[in-house]
Design brief:
The structure is a single chain. By secondary structure, the protein is α+β, with helices and mostly antiparallel strands. It folds into 2 domains: about 1-10 and about 65-120, Roll (2,3-Dihydroxybiphenyl 1,2-Dioxygenase, domain 1); about 15-55, no CATH class. Helix content is about 20%, strand content about 35%. It contains 3 helices and 8 strands; from the N terminus they run E-H-E-E-E-E-H-E-E-E-H. The chain has an 8-stranded mixed beta sheet. Strand 7 and strand 8 form a beta hairpin. The chain is globular, with a radius of gyration of 16 Å. It starts with 5 loop residues before the first strand and ends in a 6-residue tail after the last helix. About 20% of the residues are buried. The mean pLDDT is about 90.
Length: about 130
């Protein structure tokens, strides 16, 4: 059996000062905001072009715990969930597509739109 295909959509991180991080990624790396959650002047979360999700957490004192989760786009979501469960992943209270791996890594699995996984995996950014 071949493994279901998937690709990384985003990596989520907890940050104390979300405005600073939005400005940093925009000004230094050209990663503009694609989506905000909450007040645009003080959002709870921000998603940036390039695969970064920022989660405002004023109480964060890190560095441990800064990582939130990996968001992964799946070509066949039900098959990917089943394959992950066979490896011991368990669904969380957020839903069956939020899976916690045995070592604590949290995954958010999402269904692709169109032929996104094949298109993204066909690009080698280091080529």
């Amino acid at each position: 059996m071949s493994a279901p295909l998937a690709c990384l959509d985003h990596a989520a991180f907890h940050v104390r000062d979300i405005a600073f991080h939005i400005a940093f990624f925009r000004d230094v790396l050209g990663m503009t905001v694609t989506k905000l959650d909450g007040d645009p002047d003080d959002p709870k979360q921000a998603w940036l072009l390039g695969g970064i999700q920022l989660i405002r957490d004023a109480e964060f004192t890190g560095p441990e715990g800064r990582f939130g989760h990996l968001g992964i786009i799946c070509q066949d979501l039900p098959a990917t969930i089943a394959a992950a469960e066979a490896y011991g992943a368990v669904a969380t209270a957020k839903g069956p597509h939020w899976l916690l791996l045995p070592d604590g890594l949290l995954l958010e699995l999402m269904a692709q739109k169109g032929d996104a996984v094949r298109i993204i995996r066909s690009v080698d950014p280091r080529a």
